Amino acid sequence: MENNQKYYSMTAGAAYALLESYKNSSMVVPAATGSMSTSCPFLMIPVELRMKIYRLVLKASGFRLLVGNQSFSVYNEHTPIWDSHAQDALFMPPIAGFLALLSVNKQIHSEAMPEFYHENHFQFSDMGAMKRFLKNIGAERRKHVRNVSVYYDNLSAAAAGAKLLTESETLQKLTLMITATQDAADHFKVNSSRRKFATLTQVPGFSAMKRLRGVQELTFNPRLEHAVVDALLRPIITQPKSTRVVRKIKKTAKRKPESDHEISIAKKLKGD
Question: Region annotation Disordered: residue ranges (predicted)?
Fold first, then answer.
C-alpha cells in the first residue's frame, strides 16, 4: 500500500480458482433485525479486487469473439480480420460458463456486465449480424461496447446496425471491412452489393456513422480500395465529442441584456 492506495495483482488462473472456491458456497451472517440471512462471500472482498477479477474472467484475452449463429467462436487477435478467413475459428465452450457470473445476483451483474463488453473485441460477419447482436443485448449493454470489427455487407441491415452502434458511449476501436468502387458513370458500389449510389453519403449506414464521435482507432482493410471511404469517414468519426455548443447555448441563455433596446425586447417577451 502506497499513499493510502491499495494495489492488487492476480493472474487469470488465480481469478478462476478464486471464483471456483466461492461456487455454491454461502456465508450466514446476522442481520440487523437479529434474524439470519444469506450473503455472498465474494462480495465481502474489496471492490477493486472484484473489478480485477471480472476483467480477468470475462475477457477472452488474445482473441476476437466472432458473433453469430447464437453462439461465440474466437479468432486469434494477432491475426488481422482480413486474414481470418484463412484461419479456422476456435470454438469456445467455456464462454457460457464464465458468462454465468453475470447471473449470480444484481450487484455482481451491475459491476461485471460492463467489463465483458468493455474488454472484448467483437467481430461480425456482416452488418446484419451486428444489428441482431446489438439489438438483442439491449440499450444498457450497447453503450458499453468498445471494440468492433465488421464486414460492411448486407446493406439492407446496414442503416439499422450502424444506428445501434452509435448508441455506444465508449466505442474506441472500429475496423470496417469495406471497399468502394466507381463505375464509368461515377456511381459507387460497396463491397459485393449490386446497388449503385450517386454519392457515398447515400450508402446505408453512412449517415449514422458520421454521428460517431471519440473513436480513437478507425481501421480499413489495406488490401481493399477504401481510400474514398477513408476520406469520407475518418475525419468525422475520429474527432472528439463536442460540448462547446452546449456551453455556448447555456452561456447565451444566462447573459443579461446590456442595451436599452435589449431590455425593451426582454420586457415585451415577459409580457410587461
Answer: 253-272
pTM, two decimal places: 0.71
Q: For residues 130 and 254, state if they share a domain.
A: no
Query: Strand pairing of 121-124 and 63-68?
Result: parallel
**Among residues 124, 129, 174, which one has the least CA distance to residue 147?**
174
Find the domain containing 256 and state its range. Answer: 245-272
Q: What is the mean pLDDT of the chain?
A: 76
In three-state form (DSSP H/G/I as H, E/B as E, the rest C), the secondary structure along the chain is: CECCECCCCCCHHHHHHHHHHHCCCCEEEECCCCCEEEECHHHHCCHHHHHHHHHHHHCCCCEEEEEECCEEEEEECCCCHHHHHHCCCEECCHHHHHHHHHHCCHHHHHHHHHHHHHHCEEEECCHHHHHHHHHHHHHHHHCCCCEEEEECCCHHHHHHHHHHHCCCCCCCEEEEECCEEECCCCCEEECCCCCCECCHHHCCCHHHHCCCCCCCEEEECCCCCCHHHHHHHHHHHCCCCCCHHHHHHHHHHHCCCCCHHHHHHHHHHHCC
Length of the chain, in residues: 272
Other CB atoms within a 10 A radius of the CB of residue 104 amount to 16
Question: What's the rounded Cα separation, in Å, for the pair 151 and 154?
Answer: 9
Please check whether residues 211 and 86 belong to one and the same domain.
yes
Asked if residue 19 is part of any domain, the answer here is no
The total domain count for the chain is: 2
Contacts (Cβ under 8 Å, ≥6 apart) of 201 = 207, 232
